[in-house]
Amino acid sequence: MAPYISVIIPSLNRPIALWRSLNSVLAQDAGNKFEYEIIIVLDQKDNESEGRISQEALKNKRLKVYRSGRPGVSCARNLGIKASEGEIIYFLDDDCLLPRGNWLIQLYENFKNNPGASAIGGGYLFENKEKDIFCMCRNALDNFYVEANSNTEGLTGALLGGNTAYKRAVFLEYGYFDENIRYGSAETEFNDRIVKGSGKLYFIKELAVLHAAGKQSLRVYFLKSFMQGKGKAFSIHKNGFPGMILNNKPRNMWFARIAWSLDLSVVSKVLAAAFLFLNSLCYRSGMLIGRFYRNR
Question: 5-215, what's its fold?
């Protein structure tokens, strides 16, 4: 039986995280509902992960391993799409884990219950063994971004790149991820393209995955926000502004609202609010720069 769901995991030099992510997918029980395959695409620059993963692929017929010929997550995703066979193509980041054994069944059922969906995605549950405030904030910010742009029926104008599934037909209609966007908002640009073409995106809160992100420097967080802002500006230039699905979630002082929702001390909440505000400034700066420099 041909696979119905293709799980694609792009990866770059995170062998331990990738192994955990892979095992969370291998542990899925689809019963007799459907078959699924797993496609790992290693970045051109990855020199740490191939050996162990390739050995596992020799033992497990579900698993295929490829190496991208060009750097960048968009190139890896596109290679995975072209190598896949499933009608549903699901992207999982290599530092994310499926939190329970029936997760893929829930994804399958959500597509059956929403036949008009072009894409379905969820948010992030947070694994923070190091108790890193900034990592906690980034996860909360990602979730807020999607939830604030989703209505009560689940329709949304935004989905997260590390936890989203698309129908194969979407790529035939709208093309692939823009490989000129090597870092920052490639999935945002693609989702904007879908919304512009009247496709429907759905956010399903129950389809959250466990984000096992490690500690990073402030520079990495701020650079990520800057590049995401620059990528969004590129998307607006390319697609116009297709509009967002808005709800009544309060947006004034959003950085303080997110910080105060976290399980932190008062001092840490103030620090979290400042961090989130600086992320916003970096994002806005990226958008400003992106308006003048179109070459990604």
Answer: Spore Coat Polysaccharide Biosynthesis Protein SpsA; Chain A (3.90.550)
